[in-house]
Amino acid sequence: MKKSTKYVMGFVTTAALFSAVLAGCGNKSATKTTDATVGNLKVSYTNNAKTVKNGTLNVAMVQDTPFQGIFASELSNDAADSYLAEPGTAVGGSIFKTNSQFKIVNGGAADIKLDKNAKTATITLHKNLKWSDGKAVTAKDLEFAYEIVANPAYGSQRYTDSLANIEGLAEFHNGKAKSISGISYPKGQNGNQLKIQFKKMTPGMWQSGSGYYLESVEPYHYLKDVKPSKLVSSKQVRQQPLSYGPYKVSKVVSGQSVTYVQNPYYYGSKPKLKQITMSVVSTSSIAAALKAKKYDIAYEAPSTAYPSVKALKDYVQTGQKSLTFSYIAFNLGHYDTKKSINVMDRKTPLQNKSLRQAMGYAMNVDAVNKKFNNGLATRANSTIVPVFDKYNDKSVKGYPLNIKKANSLLNKAGFKWDSKHQYRLNTNGKAFKLVYLARSGSANSEAVAQNYIQQWKKIGVHVTLYHDRLTDFNTWGQIMTNGNNQNWDFTGGNWSVASDPSQMDLYSKGAPYNFGHFTTAKLTKLLNDIDSTKAIDSKVRQQAFYKYQQYMQDQAAVIPTSFSLDWYPVNKRVVGWTNDHANDQSRWANLAVSASSTK
């Protein structure tokens, strides 16, 4: 799904992350055989049956930890919150409508006009756009989102180098200005237009998810009196958020479920459902829950459940090319919160790129995918996901299993074997041990982690788990976003990335999400080249992406592990379900059901 909030941390780990790439389509019903497919997943499910009035929809959020439930994208960091917010905003949470390839087009909650010569963006809100309390959405609401991100008092993790391209935003962020000079109100703060002045124009600005401007909006009148440090925990954000989409939150059971009802002030066509309930369901029980007809749709269903789910005759397997990739990141430094930059200064054997490369070549990713993902995940060659086929450099091969090459790299780099302990010594001749911060998330997480530890043992690298056990997602997220925990050496995770392929906000020197803190002058140049004005020429940008991937491969800055498709089992009573990004603004308003209960 499109991610306008740039990057969110996936909440299911390792093997359980990957979705079905070759999933079957289920048995025939009211489905048109002409529906588009990705692999063997249907992009849309066409149910022509008559809809029922006052229908309800039950959605499963598949994960093994409670959701955080932060209904303000500027303060949230994980995929669960993004999915939970969709009925109240849109798929991906963007105010802009796009075509199927993420290019912004007119017709959404807001339109945007970019002026290349003037280096400006003018955002115009839909004339009938209102909050669920009946108040109009205003230009100040658009600007307030920038205040939340850029004012450190709010504690947002979303301030980035990309956003600092807006005139005056860095000064506001650093406390040198009380307002953002590059943001103005052509029709006043209560009007429906916001104008943004950039320092430079970048090629991704015409795409949703570029990260060079926000695509969210927050109700200033509703949140202005909440102390910044208290906003993330406030009832206005956690329990009683306002929305501008087809539905509004009516009830939140903290960490467990969210119930939506119709928003009477929605600017679009009247939503067709009376109620939507989104509930947390564990990875181990989702197949049984679907068999028992408890849910109509499942988000983030693990591939381990696929064989059982595809056999259910009343469910259709739908999906789309994923914006998700998984990775191994090495802890090479820290994040300087005062200067808002990553510093690659940690004293660790992992500063030697040969060790990082060797660890990548020791991983048997293909075997893990085959055993734990029904062969439905593919090993990643880079951090550029396949949906951006034009920019993924096929000559970059990633790190296929090659124990011989891994050992050769370590030998040449001076990591000698300690014959007594059967592990290698560092280049100074001393024993070393690496701490693996591995996440929990599925029944297979422990087996996968132990498998990789044994793989690294084969090349003489001594690895132990952080605190000798797996780490839950919420704790893992706190450690990562803190940026200064030095008790781990490398970790595995996954990113659900933006619908523009730029990775400035993921690996730049100023990116809080650069969890490994890898940063060099050359990397900075390569990232800048990708987003340069010259790169508005797609051929120039393609070559810039190729050079970036080749450098990341050589440096083993991160080890990309797997790609997948997003997989969504959908009950056959659902009407209007589509994964086509051209319908992201209207999907939830168009959903209905053709029976009073799940088939």
UniProtKB/TrEMBL annotation:
Gene3D superfamilies: Dipeptide-binding Protein, Domain 3, Periplasmic binding protein-like II. Residues 104-509 form the Solute-binding protein family domain. The keyword Transport applies. PROSITE patterns: PROKAR_LIPOPROTEIN. Keywords: Signal, Transport. Belongs to the bacterial solute-binding protein 5 family. PANTHER family: OLIGOPEPTIDE-BINDING PROTEIN APPA, PERIPLASMIC BINDING COMPONENT OF ABC TRANSPORTER. This is Oligopeptide ABC transporter substrate-binding protein. It comes from Periweissella beninensis.
